[in-house]
Fold:
Amino acid sequence: MSTASGPRVGLFVTCLVDAMRPQIGFAALQLLEEAGCRVEVPRQQTCCGQPAWNSGDAADAASIARQVIAAFEPYDYLVAPSGSCAGTITHYPELLARDPVWGPRAAALAAKTHEVLSFLVDVLGYTPTGLRLDASATYHDSCSGLRELGVHDQPRALLAAVEGLELRPLEGDNVCCGFGGTFCVKYPAISNAIITEKAEAIDATGADLLLAGDLGCLMNMAGKLHRRGSKVRCYHTIEIIAGGGAGPAIGETP
Amino acid sequence: MTTRDSILAAVHAGLGGLRAEPDAIAAEAAGLLADLDAIRPRLAAPDPVDAFEIKAAALGTTIERVRHLDDVPAAVGRYLAAQGLPPAAAVQQTAALTALSWEGIAQDMATAPDQPAAVGLARLGIAESGSIVIHSATDSPILLAFLPLHHIVVLHASSVVAHLEDYARLLDGGSQPRNAILITGPSGTTDIEGSYVRGAHGPGFVHVIIVNDRSRA
Amino acid sequence: MTAQDQTSFKARAGAALADTTLKLAIDRTTGTAERKRAAALAGFPEFEAARARGAAIKDHVIANLDHYLETFERNATAAGAKVHWAATAEEACDIVVRLCREADAKHVTRSKSMLGEEIHLPDALATAGIERVETDLAEHIIQLAGEHPSHIIWPAMHRTREQVAVLFNADHKPPPDAEDPASMVQSARRVLREKFLSADVGISGANFLVADTGATCTVTNEGNAELTTTPPRVHIVTAGIEKLVPTTAHAFALLRLLVRSATGGELTQYTTFHCGPKRPGDADGPEEMHIVLVDNGRSRMIKDEFREMLRCIRCGACMNHCVVYRQIGGHAYGGTYPGPMGAVLTPVLDGLKQSRDLPFACTMNGRCAEVCPVRIPLPTLLRAWRVRSWEEGLEKAPMRAGLGLWATLARRPGLYRLASAIAVRTLRVLGRSGWIRSLPLAGGWTEHRDLPAPAGGTFMERYKAERAKGDSR
Ligand code: SF4
Structure:
């Protein structure tokens, strides 16, 4: 439900959520609308271009960036359920620094780009009500959100509003899970060593759930936990805040 | 072109061939040290000597305060006895120390490689870090502070400055000695598994005797 | 180049990952370092302001580097030191070897200097037949082991105490009394003491070169630098040209950052300023002091994307906090400098072709930049190498082709949606149970972890369908 008065938000779904776990996108949509935003999903979006950018393919990354800028600049905000993709978009000005036309447009978009959980708290002042989930959970800070966008307290504040949910500290919660986009397939052995330690730390909490704010990291952690036979179930934080904690976790069939 | 000139030319070219006036550079450099309290730690106590003592003790330096310079030999004797060492030490041949009466303590002049103890005079103390400062000079051999196992340092309370920059200021005007050393606690190492071991190549023990020569405020 | 450098990065990393003793050693040292740094910063609330200032000081120096180099040269010369200039590693080694020969040196003591490692000075001295005694405990350990440093602060951090004991028992006469760190340190003290006093030349590095006094500054915890530089007749300093600071006070501002970031201390036990040779009447000190200023690629960095790397004060915090370093240790990087800072510097020193893996073997998690005391944007610099690698065509063909295809689709939203819908359906078929255990083209993933199957339908398809429903209502 949208209200006529709220800010106009363009939802950047992200390519991973689009393909692998649409319910994250719907959870974001639902909460943004509940919080009073007029939300649209521009059809011209595909991916933020990070795979190209992280591979050094600056030309392709720039051309994808221009497409995202054009699609999202009409909105008051660009909001994404991923610190990593939102982080990439905030780097567009760097990518287009030498472009006199697109450089300033990139800067303007970067300034109004947000990760969804921090947007709900910091910009909209949203607090969920009437949520209940009887479970214990631990939380991993995804790197881009944490370091590029300052996403740290906001998801914890939102989760604190869920009755019955016990949050357990995770040793090394701010340490990378070893995903790193193409890194995990380029250097599988190193990535495996990193994610193994992360999975051990997650299991050591004894929590029922693992929550995080980036699907890439979540797929890495969930995939490793499942391979190890762990019982920990993984969700994007926004799914829990949107009341989706009863639905299938990552890798579960309904 | 000499190597020197070609390196300087490469640097110069890398900087776009521009070069500011020395005065402008100096002014900018000075500006980078403005508002020092914003970028350095507070003292551990309001009084610099107290602050020095807190910091130095935290590093494993032991401290005794005495009233007069004349009390130093007795304090040295007490320290040696407490450490179970014979009453002997190499004493720095500087007027302030040689003028004292060292009765009962054998003065061992040659600083041998494993001299048990040596007594030296500190130029300064730095309250911020609990460091003592020694300078090389005709009457101040550097090895005196490195060869013995126990380094006993005499420090005048009046020569304790608050911060590192206060010491740096004293060096201005061309008084830089060949060697200026800030000694901050006994020698140590963390080279094996990061675990701290006291007493690597330098002294394993630093004992500071603070002489309270400040007039009472 | 060492023999080790000829193997591939992946092979070295693989060997390191298989070495459980190495992992134990890395965890012990970096774990301690991380905890101590955190404790030191908790007691230094001014840290954020101080690191901004530290970065500004280094930027100021680099922006006026020609001025500062000339000022330093003038003042060091006035203090009686002789200043030499070396454009390359070879030139620097040649100068040092020549100076040792002129001093008729049979054996030289050396206190730890990463620049010395960078220019391969140990090898050059060996080739010249000059006996070299490493006096830093860690360097002593790796000299006995015939290795290179694996960390810029703890060169021997890859060795456990048990392994150090084996080396000392074999070399030290008499061997250490026991195998605990304290007994082994005592043993090294005993062995090295006589070497200090009989050396003909002492070689050190410099943490800072102070322009307005002409002094070089070294920091150590052990006291070996002073014992290396005081007794011999000749003291030689090798230092990179980026080590300049305007004044002693600027050095102190950076020292506060350096020590806290490196070991979690506030100052090292010994902070020493060396200014020229022994003065008339001085009780001790060397008769000659030589300072070799080394460029070795640095002047080039001033004008390229890597200029910010010249801020580096070699504290090692970036590697202590790096997930990759903590798995593979320093040797796997194959260069003088490991970890994030090494991944930026090694391509500068050895060429990108030689070290192309380094900028890619990083998850871009940003923790290195978060801890760097002079705010070097390490991930940005690593990305700059990736761009160069792409531009120079060093990326392998399959990756290039795959990425090209993906980018083509990403630029055509209609086509992209079609392709992703097909891919999602295929993956759903492969992962009926919810998980895919093995996927031919994604072996790097499924070798070590399962892949969750798509939850069903793409977001875009479902959203479109829902909106259509909503509109018809
Ligand atoms: S890059 Fe930064 S953190 Fe790493 S060694 Fe250099 S100064 Fe320290």
Observations:
- The radius of gyration of chain B is 21 Å.
- The mean pLDDT of chain B is 93.
- Residues C 261, 312-318, 341, 371-374, 376 surround iron/sulfur cluster (CB under 6 Å).
- Chains B and A do not touch (no CB pair under 8 Å).
